[in-house]
Amino acid sequence: MFNELILASKNPGKIKELSALLAPMGVRVRSALEMDLPDVVEDRDTFDGNAAKKAEEIAAATGLPALADDSGICVDTLDGRPGVFSARYGGYERLLEELKAHTSDVHPAHFMCVLALAVPGQQTRLYEGRIDGHVVAAPRGTSGFGYDPVFQPKGYKETFGEMDPILKNKISHRGLALQAFVADMGKAAKTA
């Protein structure tokens, strides 16, 4: 285990969410934003590729373990778009506008997250989280960020934007990926 971890992100919403999820681990968390590190270009065509690239570049630049996230919403009606382009897609406003052209009122979707942990001198580890649900017709709620107001997870009546952040962090794609990360770190600590 390590004492300090750099979040390879400048997105305030992701930093806040990941910091809250990592708090129980007792690791000092810093971000690329806080450290004023250069942006990493997300030019891979998979969540795995983008997450690994970001983590590896930040770990190389700082000499510290880095955790990166690449995540997005994948809408069945749009053949999985916006997917890895979610951050650069135009937000939920564009998504809802595009969905108006389709006859169905129900738009199954899932959020996907891949976390990559890069530790200098070690192989990069990947952790996945996925939650299924659907896109709602109009935004609901002001919590969270990004596509949260238009995504309603399966089995819940609220969108991520309406959901209590503690519950969202427990069931979300990012929360599930982080749970896999924490479990792996726990196993590593026991064998060390």
Describe the structure in brief.
The chain contains five helices and six strands, in the order βαβαβαβββαα.
Search tags:
192 residues, alpha/beta, Maf protein, 6-stranded mixed beta sheet, 6 strands
Radius of gyration from CA coordinates: 17 Å
Number of strands: 6
The CATH topology corresponds to: Maf protein
Indicate the CATH architecture: Alpha-Beta Complex
The count of domains is 1
Could you name the CATH class? Alpha Beta
Estimate the mean pLDDT confidence: 90
Work out the helicity level: 25-40%
* Topology as a string of helices (H) and strands (E): EHEHEHEEEHH
Instruction: Show unreliable segments.
Output: none
**How many strands, what sense, and barrel or not for the largest sheet?**
6 strands, mixed
Estimate the strand proportion.
Answer: 15-25%
Distance between the termini: 8 Å
> How many helix segments?
5
Question: What oligomeric state do these chains adopt?
Answer: single chain
Write the layout of secondary structure elements.
Blueprint: E1 4-7, H1 12-22, E2 28-31, H2 47-62, E3 66-75, H3 91-99, E4 107-118, E5 125-135, E6 151-153, H4 165-171, H5 173-191
Parallel strand pairs: 1-2, 1-3
Antiparallel strand pairs: 3-4, 4-5, 5-6
Helix pairs in contact: 4-5
